[in-house]
Design a protein that fits this description.
InterPro entries: Glyco_trans_1, Glyco_trans_2-like, Glyco_trans_4-like_N, Glycosyltransferase_grp1, Nucleotide-diphossugar_trans. Residues 10-175 form the Glycosyltransferase 2-like domain. With 748 residues, this protein is an alpha/beta fold. It has three domains: 9-226 and 311-320, Alpha-Beta Complex (Spore Coat Polysaccharide Biosynthesis Protein SpsA, Chain A); 337-529, Glycogen Phosphorylase B (Rossmann fold, 3-Layer(aba) Sandwich), CATH 3.40.50.2000; 548-723, Glycogen Phosphorylase B (Rossmann fold, 3-Layer(aba) Sandwich). It is 42% helix and 16% strand. The chain has 28 helices and 28 strands. The strands form five sheets. An eight-stranded mixed beta sheet has the order 17-18-16-15-19-20-21-22. Strands 3-2-1-4-12-6-13 form a seven-stranded mixed beta sheet.
Amino acid sequence: MTGSSLPAFSIVINTLNRANSLAQTLESLCWLKYRGQFEVIVVNGPSTDHSQEIVESWGDRIRWARCPVANLSVSRNIGIAMAAGDIVAFIDDDGIPEPEWLEQIAAAYDDPNVGAVGGLVFDHTGYEFQYKYCVVDRYGEADLDVTGPTPHLCFPKSFHFPHLLGTNCTFRRQALLEIQGFDEEFEYYLDETDVCARLIDLGYFVRQLPNAYVHHKFAPSNLRGTNRVAKYRYPIIKNRIYFSLKHAREYEPLDRILENQTRFVTKHRDEVRWCVGEGLLKEADVEQFELDAERAIETGLRRGFEGPRDVLTEDKLSRFEGAFKPFDPIVIADPKTIVLVSRDYPPGHGGGIATFTRDLASALGKLGHIVHVITQSPDINRVDFEAGVWVHRIVPTTRQLSGAVRTQGMPEHIWNWSASALAEARRIAGHRRIDAVEAPIWDCEGIAFLLDGEFPLVTSLHTTLGFWLQSHPEKTADAQWMQDFGTPMLKLEARLLLEADAIRANSQAIVLDIERQYEIRLPEDRLQVIPHGLGPSQAGQETASARVNGHSHGKTVLFVGRLEHRKGIDVLLEAIPTVLDTFPGTRFRIIGDNTQIAGDGKTYQEQFAASRAAALHVGAVSFEGRLDDHAVHQAYAECDLFVAPSRYESFGLIFLEAMREGKAVIGCAAGGMPEVIEDKVTGLLVRPGDVRALTEALLAMLGSDEMRSAMGKAARERFATRFTAARMGNESQRLYALAASRHKAGRA
């Protein structure tokens, strides 16, 4: 007991060879929102992977012990013995609880006769339920078709009784002590079912909740492969036989119990053979099954007639007992639920909006808020917990166009995505109140939210369609394209700018440019300028000698971005020959989508490859296409100088990525770039489209190690003081409060 009016919890994680999923489960506990206290206990079985390293990395924040055998009930009894809380909560080492888990469980222990409580369990997708409600009989047969809790079956000797799934089951510790904990015959399967039966027979209630969600990710185990098909069925068969002999003999004659056991074995035999036919198991698995089944039947019958032998003893209690160790979760006085909508999101997508969304989400999560990201899935709907963020990857579906939407002339695919995201937000709102939604101006991702009006909406300013058209005059000249897409989208952008509850601007420049481009005035009382920020560096520690692949005697200049006119790649490629003539050892790395046609039917890469400069400087310029995040981060860390002569950037995250690594940068005096780059301090600014000015800047930088070093140091300092994700997340809290206030006032 901790002295609090709320019960103290001991969360017990029993683990065996699941280091990676264990790490994620432990991390997820940092976001539990419980007004009382809880401790975390890990009981590590005879693991041969790096599970123990994961456990010990948490230091004294958690308590832990070793279990010498691969037996879940033995491990759970050790956890009970260690537990010092009022309630022992078991969660699997591949389970992720939602933030309200303990709060909702605690409310169900309002009656001292309640001995066990459990909630709902999502499967690995996060969309479908692995478990909602279940009733089990004294044979051990489960009925998963029940549609709600079954408190009427909670009476001693009830043949059918409510069941809790092992990955989301909690017990009053005193009740567990009264029944001497888990029966250690159950090394796996029916272990918690046996506990529920014995608690009910002792007069306790088992409560099944309609919430208290846990997401079960189904990590592989020694019993189950990556395809989740059980290969080793010995404990399943043995424990089913043992369970029925232990619990059914008061109700049924022995011959009927044995007949039930035979049907159970036959069912598993048929399932194994079916799996072989489907290619899920091999023929050798059939032979092994028969050997395992024969041994399981013999052992289950013998142990069943002998009765229980190993339980939670006084010796185990005294050996493992310890003082309550309160866990320190991420606590904030008034946590908010923030939903970020971004069709693009790492790791499958790069780009400015994807990077911004990831770093903002992570920063808000570290502050203690509950953060959901709704992004597009390439395959199925699923929810994953990643670095403190609930990431909802959804497949957009066709959504009916309302009359209001039709009159806007909205492109169907734009509406389908935004409306699908809205539907997912409503699903989230079924678990907790949403305090604000943020979506980018690009592709009008928040338009369904604006038209619906249910949630406070923040529109974040990035490059707009209006800006994009400035560098794609061929689209403006296409009357049909403008009629079908361009003009309707420009109108929708203007509506979002004028009607969203709040506006995030990443720079002062983008505010002025948008007002000029769209001939509107953004309301100052709804606008906040919050410069973008990035998380910590993710680059590795490769040596400088390895970074240039044979060009260690020269300098490496890096460009990252789409190879298109707006990014100024044509200007850079025109400047490169002079630079290489002056500094022959220089290497240029060009990273980014290189499929954009330059205007003569060729890409910029193809144009350069056909040039005289390419022939004279073979290997000096490498076009590397799109790379994964790790490779791009490494490229920033390994370069000597970063250059991106964009004709326009609303902000310029690419410069922050270089500055974070302590690199001097070259950009253009356009858009938000001057607000990121301090000219002649952290880098150089040149006129957009000016080949001569860019060439001179490159020559000056490459010709002075002292200048690059000083500017690189200043760039890192400027990043650390002004452009971190932590600062961005902290300042964003005011933005969401503004949106909520404006939304409330608008609905009053």
